[in-house]
Design goal:
Elements: E1 3-13, E2 22-37, E3 42-49, H1 63-75, E4 81-89, H2 98-113, H3 120-135, H4 143-148, E5 151-156, E6 161-165, E7 171-178, H5 184-189, H6 197-216, H7 219-225, H8 232-235, H9 242-251, E8 256-259, E9 266-271, H10 273-289, E10 294-300, E11 307-308
Parallel strand pairs: 3-4
Antiparallel strand pairs: 1-2, 1-11, 2-4, 2-5, 5-6, 7-9, 7-10, 8-9
Helix pairs in contact: 1-2, 1-3, 2-3, 6-7, 9-10
Length: about 300
Amino acid sequence: MNSIKVFAPASVANVAVGYDILGFALEKPGDEVIVRFSDQIGFRITEISGANGKLPLEVAKNTAGVAALRLLEHLGKTDLGIEMQIHKKMPFGSGLGSSAASAAAGVFAVNELLGGPLTKLELLPFAVAGEQVADGAYHADNVGPSLLGGMLFIRNNDALDVHQLPVPEDLYAAVVYPEVEVLTKDAREVLSDTVSLKNHIEQTGNLGGLLIGFFECDYELIGRSLRDVIIEPQRAKLIPHFAEVKAAALKHGALGCSISGAGPSIFALCKGEVLANNIGAAMQQIFNNQQINNQLFVSPINRDGAIKL
């Protein structure tokens, strides 16, 4: 095929109790990437839309570009002529893995253009390397779900020892993105390097409970376990009205509610689509009352990740 168009979805990282080791994919929003063969030798990014000039066309500085180029180098295909177009269809700095979606889409698209020589799992190291351009960290809790889909547990980021978890069919996420700026750099800098033994024990119990809840489709256990006692208390102050939004979500029946990635997006896990829509509306209303522009996304867990359109 001379041209391939793919989609890679947004993702929610950390999932409250799994800092840098848990993440799941949403159905929407996401990014689209188009790649095609070219008569001009080399790999180029020719167009970026929806980014308001914020993303570079220079391959070495672009997450999708780096991910794709690393794949081409691995396959010994750098002598091919390939052009890429990136269409951003999700907000920047939202805590929904925007750079990860681009990286996942970029490497998946080029792999498809070449006939699919590698599996999605084999593409993961290149996608992670691409996202690393954006924040300097080598972790897969956003880019892994965006590429592979599902609820992903990363036992070790350096080794990319990743595992997809079973999740209940009726598990939905309501995610509200308030249009305020929270820099990933700032969100990491507020975190303490030390954790009390008490909090470590409680957080470990919650993480274990959440994993068991997924395996056993136990919504009550999932709800009891979605309580972050380490990261959320330190980052909540960066997001306006976070406590009110969380309280609204829980009042209306959310299993749990916390910060998506570094923020400012806030997610709630819910049982069923109808309840998720109601919870999302209640969360959104808090920001509406404060005249803060926001976007609501309600989605089941996306089990497909990056797909060809």
